[in-house]
Q: What sequence folds into this?
């Protein structure tokens, strides 16, 4: 037996060298995320949500934080989610939060999240804040785009500064894939998409297409954001759509169903894992995902 020991030892010594030479590395721990906009569901079907998350490998939930819900509802649900290994981020989304005149409203929402966290136990807290601000859906975007971007930037800086006063609280945002081609107001050579990624710990890229590879595919549309995040040392989630879209069947997986979507996501993970910034996939949203045909 002993005569084989040097060979075995040599083999173990060789494995790290093979990893370096070939570029292989230990598999990254990927996260799968989803949104939950209808916050009343945390009271009406909490067990179903958690069972669905477990079945589909969801470990990060963007949960709409609404003043209409009592704190106790969030406490009960988040405590169960935490025990199930699911991180919960407070989700907020108003297109008007991109305008300076509504900065007070945005910051008041952040204050409510922070106040909630301060008043509950550790296992009942949100571990992050996630914003879905889409001022490009406002009429002003078509007539005063540069001015809107400037106001949006100011609001992001203000909210991020407030949120970062709480150590360990992650901040993230949703961005459409095409935002990388939008320039900063006073710098045509700089990407607003890159700026937005830089302000957050992670960004979730809405690369809404129904195929993994090829032209006009999920991987093609998210390549620039991943490259930006690689450079900035940030994390990127790549999101797909489960809700039927009025823009065309190529946008969502609603028509194809879960089996086809899962097959496409399985192609994406090994492909995108080449990027240090790739953190995992996200599906928008729980409400539509759960009712998708198989």
A:
């Amino acid at each position: 037996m002993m005569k084989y020991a040097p060979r075995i030892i040599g083999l173990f010594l060789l494995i790290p060298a093979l990893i370096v030479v070939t570029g292989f590395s230990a598999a990254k721990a990927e996260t799968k995320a989803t949104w939950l906009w209808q916050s009343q569901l945390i009271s009406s079907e909490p067990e179903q949500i958690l069972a669905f998350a477990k079945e589909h490998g969801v470990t990060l939930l963007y949960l709409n934080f609404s003043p209409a819900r009592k704190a106790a509802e969030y406490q009960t649900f988040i405590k169960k989610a935490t025990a199930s290994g699911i991180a919960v981020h407070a989700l907020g989304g108003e297109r008007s939060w991109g305008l300076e005149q509504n900065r007070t409203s945005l910051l008041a929402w952040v204050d409510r999240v922070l106040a909630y966290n301060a008043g509950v136990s550790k296992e009942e807290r949100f571990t992050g804040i996630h914003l879905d601000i889409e001022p490009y859906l406002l009429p002003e975007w078509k007539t005063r785009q540069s001015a809107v971007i400037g106001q949006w930037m100011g609001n992001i800086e203000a909210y991020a500064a407030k949120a970062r006063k709480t150590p360990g609280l992650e901040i993230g945002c949703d961005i459409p894939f095409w935002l990388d081609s939008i320039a900063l107001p006073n710098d045509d050579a700089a990407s607003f998409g890159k700026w937005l990624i830089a302000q957050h710990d992670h960004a979730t890229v809405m690369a809404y297409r129904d195929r993994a590879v090829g032209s006009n595919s999920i991987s093609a549309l998210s390549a620039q954001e991943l490259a930006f995040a690689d450079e900035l040392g940030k994390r990127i989630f790549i999101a797909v759509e489960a809700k039927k879209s009025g823009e065309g069947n190529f946008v969502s997986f609603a028509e194809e169903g879960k089996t086809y979507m899962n097959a496409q996501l399985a192609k994406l993970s090994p492909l995108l894992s080449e990027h240090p910034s790739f953190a995992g996939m996200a599906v928008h949203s729980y409400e539509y995902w759960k009712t998708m045909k198989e």
